[in-house]
Hints:
The structure holds two protein chains of two kinds.
Chain A: H1 3-8, E1 16-17, E2 20-21, E3 23-24, H2 35-48, H3 58-78, E4 86-89, H4 92-107, E5 113-117, H5 126-135, E6 138-142, H6 152-158, E7 163-169, H7 181-190, E8 194-198, H8 210-213, E9 217-221, E10 232-236, H9 238-243, E11 254-257, E12 262-264, H10 278-294, H11 296-314, E13 320-323, E14 334-339, H12 344-353, E15 356-357, E16 359-361, H13 366-372, E17 377-381, H14 388-408
Parallel strand pairs in A: 3-15, 5-6, 5-7, 7-8, 8-9
Antiparallel strand pairs in A: 1-2, 4-10, 9-10, 11-12, 13-14, 14-17, 16-17
Helix pairs in contact in A: 2-10, 3-10, 4-5, 11-14, 12-14
Chain B: H1 4-9, H2 12-19, E1 32-37, E2 44-52, E3 55-64, H3 67-80, H4 85-100, H5 127-145
Helix pairs in contact in B: 2-3, 3-5, 4-5
Domain NIF system FeS cluster assembly NifU N-terminal (chain B): 10-129
Protein name (chain B): SUF system NifU family Fe-S cluster assembly protein
Organism (chain B): Lysinibacillus louembei
Amino acid sequence: MNIKDIKNYFPVLNQEVNGHPLVYLDSAATSQKPIQVIEALKKYYEFDNSNVHRGVHTLGNRATDSYEGAREKVRKFINARSTKEIIFTRGTTTALNTVAAGYGRQTLQEGDEIVITYMEHHSNIIPWQQLAKEKGAVLKYIDLQQDGTISLDAVRAAITSKTKIVSIMYVSNVLGTINPIKDIAKIAHDNGAIIVVDAAQAAPHVKVDVQDLDCDFLAFSGHKMCAPTGIGVLYGKEALLDNMEPIEFGGEMIDFVGLYESTWKELPWKFEGGTPIIAGAIGLGAAIDFLNEIGLDNIAAHEHKLAAYAMDELEKIEGLQIFGPRDPMQRCGLVTFNLDDVHPHDVATVLDMNGIAVRAGHHCAQPLMKWLQVTATARASFYLYNDEADIDRLVAGLRSAKEYFNDVF
Amino acid sequence: MSFNNLDQLYRSVIMEHYKNPRNKGILQENNVTIDMNNPTCGDRIHLTLKLTDGIVEDAKFDGEGCSISMSSASMMTQIIKGKKLEEALELADIFSKMMLGEEYDLDKYDLGDVEALQGVSQFPARIKCATLAWKAMEKGVKSEAQ
C-alpha cells in the first residue's frame, strides 16, 4: 500500500484546520470519501438520475442497472449466496431495527432470551430492549474479561436453550476488540438460537464472509467504508428473510395492491419500501470497488500495524490510560484512551486546535462506559489513509495537551 | 504548538473554578431538583436550588463533565445566589446570548467570573458544555415560577 497515493484520492485530507494540516483520526465515526466515490455520485446525478424499477426509459434502465449492480457488488463483498439476501437500508441502525421488529416480533415468546454484550453500540442494545419489553422476553448480557475481550466460557454461560437471538458486534467501536463471531455463532446455533452481527466497525476494515461466519443476519453502514451517509446493508439468510414480514409498507415493495389486501414483491425488494437510496447504493458500489482494488487484507494489515505503533507510542505518555486488549492482533485500528484528569472533551479541543480530529464522549456505548467506570473517553480511529506520521502528530498533540493542562492547573 | 486560541477558551479563572468548584454538592434543604445531561458526551449535572419568596436563596451542583461544563456550573451557582427569580432567568438569557455571540445588556449586571466564559462562543462544539448548568437552572426556576 502506498499511503501517499491513497491519501491523494481523498480531497478532504488536503486542507488545513486551525492553521495546521488536517490529521483525520475519526474514521470510526465516519470515514472520508475517495474521489472515485464522489465521481460516481456526480455521474449518477449528472447523467443517470432516475427512479429504479419503474421507468421504461433509458435513464431509468441505467439507474436500475447501477443500483442492482451495487447489490451484486455487496453480495460478493460479504460472500452472500444470493442478491436476495442483500437489503439496502439507511444504515446499521435501521438494519438492526428491521431484524428486531421483523424477525424478533414474529418469533419471540414470553420468557425467551435475547443475549447481547456490555460492549454493544446503542444501536445494538435499544432495539432488543424494546423488543424484550414488548414480548416479555429476557435481555441478558455476556460479561467481558478485564482486557475488554469476550471468553467463549462467558458466551456458553449466557446462551441457554431459552435463547432465541444472540446479537453481537464484530468489532468494538470503543475497545477495538475483534470478537470470535464464528465460535459464538456455533454456540448460538447449538442452542437453537440465531445470531445477528453488527459489522459496522468490521466491514470497512476486515474481510467479512457471512458463509464462513455462518451468521443469520449481519448489518453494516456505507459511510464508515468510504461510501456516502444514508446507505447501509442488512444481510439475512434467504430462508429467514422469506419468512419475515416487511416492516415498511408502500411504494417499491408492493406486488399487487387491492382495496383491503395487498401482496409484496419477492426478496430483496419486499424490504425496500418507497424510493430506495439509489445514489447511496451506487456510491457504496463505487466504495467497494475502491476497497477491493486496495485489498481488505492489505487494509487490515496496515491498520494492525498502525494500532501497534500507536499503542507503543501512546504508552510512552505518562498518565495515559488505554482501554481494550493490548495485543494489536486482537483489535482493529482504533485506540481509546484517557489522559490523566483531563476530560476527553478538553483533550479533543486541544487536538482540534492542532488540526487533529478525534472523537470524545461515550461513543454511543454508555453501558460500556459504565463497565469501564468512566463517563467519557477519547478515541483515535485509523483507516487506510492514515500513516505513522499522523500518529506522531497525535502523540505530539497529546503531549502538548498534557503540558498545557498541567500549566493551567 | 501555539496555544493562543486555546487561551481564549481556557482562561485561568475557568480552570481555577474547575479545580476549586464553588457550591459543589447537594443542598439538603431544597425545593427544586433538576437533572440534566448532554446526551452526546455524557456530561451530567444534578442541580439543587432553594427558592424562597421569589429569591434564589441557595444553589448547589453535582455531576461530572469537562472543565467548561463544570466551571460554568460553579460560576452559575455563584452568580444566581441572592438574585430574584426573574433576574436569574434574565442572567440565563444573557449567558445564552453571550454564547451565541449576540449582543446583551452589559450595564445591568456585574457578570464577574462568568465573563471569562465569553471565549467559549468561538468554539461552537463547546457551547453545549457551557450552557448545561444554565439550562438546568432555567428549567428549575421556571418550574417554580409557574
